[in-house]
Amino acid sequence: MKRTWEDKAMEIVWQSPAIRPQPQDYIFRDGRRHVRPYYFEFICHVKNRWAGKTIVDLFTHEFKGRPYDYYVSAVKSGRIQVDGEMVPVSHIVKTSQKISHFVHRHEPPVMTWDISILQEKPDVVVVCKPASVPVHPCGQYRKNTVVGILEAEHGLAPLFPIHRLDRLVSGLLILARSASKADYFRQQIEGGMVQKQYIARVAGEFPEQEQVVDANVNHDARECRSTTEISHSGDDIPIKGKTACTKFTRLSTNGIHSLVLCEPVTGRTHQIRVHLQHLGYPIANDALYLSKHVNGRSTEGMGADRAAANSSPSPPSGFRENLSTEPVDSNEDFSIDPMCTNCPNLVPKGYDVYEEALWLHCVRYSAPGWTYECPYPDWASLS
């Protein structure tokens, strides 16, 4: 690959998914785990709808996290290349050409809560996932994930998550240690043989009798938000959402909040959260689904994941660019890149430091032949 960058005098070590996370990759500060910024190559191939645009216009329109002038400089310096070659800013892209974008990558921080290993067997690792940490590399996260941290701190690799928990959700997470074991678990899940249990702390005094919500869930990926849909007999309006069913049982209440056992029969994005909202008893700190008018019920404890609603739209598939961030303080523990749009800050732009956890916790997964359980979190006590 040709590189004639303005900062070519800098010592640059490029990282790829083949380079494993290491303990020294992390910086701990103010209760948060940060990742030292690192150089990374993002690769994608030109889609049909991109063809005919100039390389600069393509990036400006499709990846809005950086300004036009940055992309001009990146093309001129070789940080953006086409088929491994430098091109002029006027270059017109063609379908299937390979585009590389070499970036100084800043990952969002996560909380420093431990990932507790509940069981470690030759073919399975079971952990208690803390809130704020994504399960596996996705979006802006690569090293600051459960998979990355377990590899860096415990040498556990490879790991294959057999189910996922949203970043803000805590609790039981099962990871297979081989592809064959992962397939075994997934076949059971897809065959409807696995029972899942979560607990949630909701606003209001939840009814004593079991509540069953059978309402389709329609997820809007751009808004990072789900809605419920119910078909009525005689309606000609088509239902867009996927079928979804959740059973809810009240465990305890103090009149202000209730602790509820949630048993999802299906597994849709934000299913438990949106079904609780549908009932009128949203999770008590879920800013995304908490209405300001919840029939007079208390909404104290708000503050978990406004970022899900206010985050920048996801970039097109292919590149998984670092599109959001918010400046924090500068850091002397990493090298500043003169072209980086995040430096000198350690934290990427747009990160909301106040939204890190949701009162939703996975407590149990079971199927014929196995059961795994996770302890309750501190917020599960209503005393």
TrEMBL record:
Any one GO molecular-function label of the UniProt entry: RNA binding
Keyword list, A-Z: Isomerase, RNA-binding
Keyword match Protease: no
Matching Pfam families: PseudoU_synth_2 (PF00849)
EC numbers on record: 5.4.99.-
Family recorded in the similarity comment: Belongs to the pseudouridine synthase RluA family.
Function: Responsible for synthesis of pseudouridine from uracil.
Gene Ontology biological process terms in this record: enzyme-directed rRNA pseudouridine synthesis
Record bears the keyword RNA-binding: yes
Listed name of the protein: Pseudouridine synthase
Enzyme class of the recorded protein, top EC level: isomerase
InterPro entries reported for this sequence: PsdUridine_synth_cat_dom_sf, PsdUridine_synth_RluA-like_CS, PsdUridine_synth_RluC/D, PsdUridine_synth_RsuA/RluA, RluA_PseudoU_synthase
Family matches, as Gene3D superfamilies: Pseudouridine synthase (3.30.2350.10)
Annotated region (Disordered), positions in chain: 299-331
Domain Pseudouridine synthase RsuA/RluA-like: 123-278
Organism per entry: Pyrus ussuriensis x Pyrus communis
Catalytic activity: a uridine in RNA = a pseudouridine in RNA
Active-site residue numbers: 166
